[in-house]
């Protein structure tokens, strides 16, 4: 399965590594770990993430060549697209990537389209980092601390700190090995979960005040507006983890966070605890993701957006 990628890496020299917009722990940790692996092999990797790395992942050993904003147009021996169910998840200008080099698609979303020359899609993997670890093993890479903490953090965050249904035995086995490479779980947990600025909690207070429940309290919905960001001097990166907080409510099966982008466009994040396939629901609106964690955007006023969501969940 990894042979083709190993050949491409061995033959090539310049590589672009990219992942989805609004990078999460897996997108960040996976791209960073692959950079350090290629660097250790004497290659010339470069990372492109459209958006800046969120503050909670700033502790990760960051490679020197990470570009944000515009795609660094050049010729590469391969373009690695990580954690992207669809190539457009890379952001504006994604069409150019296919002309910049052969695209290697490594992903674990159930809604992945095989857009690459090589496609390694494992929906049972907890994270892209788990798939990459398998690749590194077959390449006999000497695991350094910089690689290990990026891999550990990617798995730790994509499994919701080992709480979600994608938490598998492989996730623990890999993370155990990473601790033997020097990763301290308490340090990672503190950096990810206990290192938020005060403003984030002022924002969370406003968001939780909008909480409403539907379908006999099995669906919980909260909202964040541009006005709330202004009042608390925050931005969308401070909302990371909010939808998970809503999911913590007893009896709630589906948690929904509506984030106002403009007065007529909303970003929807959904999390489910049980059997509800939120990727399927988000797919109705052109989005996607995983069974228990997915997202989409919906056009319309807040009233229209809520109506369309209620319709999707068959609520009168
Ligand atoms: Mn992921």
Topology (elements, then pairings):
Layout: H1 3-11, E1 14-19, H2 25-40, E2 44-48, E3 66-67, E4 78-82, H3 97-100, E5 103-107, E6 118-121, H4 128-138, H5 145-158, H6 169-180, H7 185-193, H8 198-208, E7 212-214, E8 219-224, H9 226-232, H10 242-247, E9 254-262, E10 265-272, H11 278-283, E11 288-290, E12 293-299, H12 302-312
Parallel strand pairs: 1-2, 1-4, 2-3, 4-5, 5-6, 8-9
Antiparallel strand pairs: 7-8, 9-10, 10-12, 11-12
Helix pairs in contact: 2-4, 2-5, 4-5, 5-6, 5-7, 8-9
The structure holds manganese (II) ion.
Mean pLDDT: 96
Number of helices: 12
CATH topology grouping of the largest domain: inorganic pyrophosphatase (n-terminal core)
Main sheet attributes: strand count, strand direction, barrel closure: 6 strands, parallel
Give the overall form.
globular
Rg (CA only):
19 Å
CATH class of the largest domain: Alpha Beta
Report what the structure shows.
The protein contains 12 helices and 12 strands. It is α/β, with parallel strands linked by helices and 316 residues long. The protein has 2 domains: 3-193, inorganic pyrophosphatase (n-terminal core) (Alpha-Beta Complex), CATH 3.90.1640; 198-312, Diaminopimelate Epimerase, Chain A, domain 1, CATH 3.10.310. A 6-stranded parallel β-sheet has the order 3-2-1-4-5-6. A 6-stranded mixed β-sheet has the order 7-8-9-10-12-11. Strand 4 (78-82), helix 3 and strand 5 (103-107) form a beta-alpha-beta unit. Helix 2 packs antiparallel against helix 5 and helix 8 (198-208) runs antiparallel to helix 9. The radius of gyration is 19 Å and the shape is globular. Manganese (II) ion is lined by residues 26, 83, 108, 127-128, 158.
């Amino acid at each position: 399965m990894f042979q083709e990628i190993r050949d491409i890496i061995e033959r090539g020299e310049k590589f672009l590594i990219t992942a989805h917009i609004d990078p999460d722990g897996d997108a960040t940790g996976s791209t960073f770990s692959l950079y350090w692996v290629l660097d250790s092999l004497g290659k010339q990797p470069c990372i492109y993430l459209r958006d800046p790395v969120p503050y909670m992942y700033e502790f990760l050993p960051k490679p020197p060549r990470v570009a944000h904003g515009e795609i660094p147009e050049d010729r590469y021996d391969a373009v690695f697209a990580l954690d992207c169910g669809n190539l457009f998840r890379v952001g504006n200008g994604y069409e150019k990537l296919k002309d910049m080099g052969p695209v290697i698609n490594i992903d674990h979303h159930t809604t992945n389209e095989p857009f690459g020359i090589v496609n390694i899609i494992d929906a049972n993997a907890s994270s892209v980092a788990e798939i990459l670890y398998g690749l590194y093993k077959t390449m006999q890479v000497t695991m350094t601390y910089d690689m290990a903490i990026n891999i550990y953090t990617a798995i730790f965050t994509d499994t919701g700190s080992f709480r979600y249904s994608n938490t598998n035995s492989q996730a623990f086995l890999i993370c155990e090995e990473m601790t033997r490479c020097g990763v301290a779980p308490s340090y990672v947990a503190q950096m990810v979960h206990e290192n938020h600025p005060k403003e984030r909690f002022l924002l969370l207070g406003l968001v939780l005040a909008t909480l409403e429940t539907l379908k006999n309290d099995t669906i919980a919905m909260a909202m964040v507006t541009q006005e709330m960001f202004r009042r608390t001097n925050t931005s969308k990166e401070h909302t990371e983890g909010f939808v998970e907080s809503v999911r913590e409510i007893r009896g709630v099966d589906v948690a929904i966070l509506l984030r106002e982008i403009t007065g007529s466009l909303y970003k929807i994040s959904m999390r489910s605890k049980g059997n509800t396939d939120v990727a399927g629901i988000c797919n109705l609106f052109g989005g996607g993701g995983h069974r228990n964690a997915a997202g989409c955007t919906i056009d319309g006023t807040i009233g229209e957006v809520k109506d369309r969501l209620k319709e999707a969940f068959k609520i009168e």
